[in-house]
Write a structure and sequence with these properties.
Blueprint (H helix, E strand, L loop, with lengths): L4 H17 L1 H8 L3 H28 L3 H29 L24 H6 L8 H15 L4
Helix pairs in contact: 1-2, 3-4
Keywords: Membrane, Transmembrane, Transmembrane helix
InterPro entries: DUF3040 (IPR021401)
Protein name: DUF3040 domain-containing protein
């Protein structure tokens, strides 16, 4: 029997809260560490960057400019992905213990659609008192009030 929309929203909200609260636990559940995955993406981006350099130089040597342009685009894309992976690796290394402040939901490992609410979640203070369930209930109550009781 499939879950209702309200149950799915509640489940996604609890997943988001758990991933913000304890990113190491989330990465343990996924079976891969955050640093290892980021390192793998950075190495792959480096290899693709080298392929882009080869394409760029091949296009320049044989004087076919579309190949050179394609090589440049490949280099640019892989450099962007590689830098993002290195930034993700640095963020994973910056979380020394489960008690540390969590990462944004998009970087935690769960595949939950954020619905554009990541910015709001970051701006709120993380030092609020109360248990995990109290915070989840408070967020749920606030969202129901924002949506007119639905």
């Amino acid at each position: 029997m499939p879950l209702s929309e309200e149950e799915l929203r509640l489940l996604e909200q609890m997943e988001r809260a758990l991933s913000e609260e304890d990113p190491k636990f989330v990465s343990t559940l996924r079976g891969t560490s955050l640093r290892r995955a980021a390192r793998r993406r950075a190495v792959l981006a480096g290899a693709v960057f080298v392929l882009g350099v080869v394409l760029l130089m091949t296009g320049a040597v044989i004087n076919i400019w579309p190949i050179g342009i394609a090589g440049f685009v490949v280099m640019l894309g892989s450099a962007t992905l590689g830098l993002n992976a290195l930034r993700g690796q640095a963020q994973a290394a910056a979380v020394p213990s489960p008690e540390a402040a969590g990462q944004p939901a998009g970087h935690s490992g769960f595949t939950v659609i954020d619905g554009g609410r990541r910015g709001k979640m970051r701006s709120r203070s993380r030092g609020s008192s109360g248990s995990f369930m109290e915070r989840v209930e408070e967020r749920w109550r606030r969202r129901r009030e924002e949506n007119g009781g639905f």
